[in-house]
Amino acid sequence: MLLAGCGGEDFKNEARAPIREALTGVIQDDAVTVSPSKLGAGPVEITISNQTDAAHSITLEGNSIVEREGPVAPGDTTTIQKTLGPGSYQVKAGSRKAVVNEIRPATLRIGKERQNSNNDVLLP
After folding, report:
1. By CB neighbour count within 10 A (0-12 exposed, 13-18 middle, 19+ buried), where does 106 fall?
2. Res 119: pLDDT
3. Domain range enclosing 97
4. Is the peptide bond before 71 cis (omega within 30 degrees of 0)?
5. Handedness of CA 73, 77, 83, 88 (dihedral sign)
6. Which of 1, 15, 89, 95 is 20 to 30 A from residue 124's alpha carbon, by CA?
7. Bridge partners, residue 91, by sequence
8. Does 9 have pLDDT greater than 80?
9. How far from 93 is each of 38, 59, 83, CA to CA, in Å?
């Protein structure tokens, strides 16, 4: 009776996802920049700061993904968390007001999948 809860089920040793990669970005009057702009596929967390005088919405777009956040007030930040596959993605800033010069989007180039996190310790 005491052994009934021990080892009756076999668990597969499946690979864990790669560690979430932290990217930082900034919206300026002329362009959005995100760093690093090249990395391997897997989970990402993009924190973007709005350094303009107007509120902007943020859009991550590419490979059938469209993720929108905001609007982000001037001086504020927002975060987008997504798992990205290989390909090219754009991070765009939009505004409700018409602007004379469009803000150039940042381009992310995502390569082959990053290594799994099976051997990394102290992860949640």
Report:
1. buried
2. 67
3. 21-113
4. yes
5. positive
6. 89
7. 60, 106
8. no
9. 20, 7, 20
For residue 24, the Cα-to-chain-centroid distance in whole angstroms is 9
Instruction: Please state the domain count of the chain.
Output: 1
Kindly state the average pLDDT of the residues 91-115. 84
Q: Report yes or no on 41 lying in a domain.
A: yes
- In DSSP notation, 6-57 reads SS-S----PPPPPPPEEEEEEE-SSBEEEES-EEEEEEEEEEEEE-SSS-EE
Residue keyed to tokens 């007001």:
97
CATH of the domain at 89: 2.60.40.420
Q: Hey, what are 17's tokens?
A: 């996802």
Strand partners, 67: 60
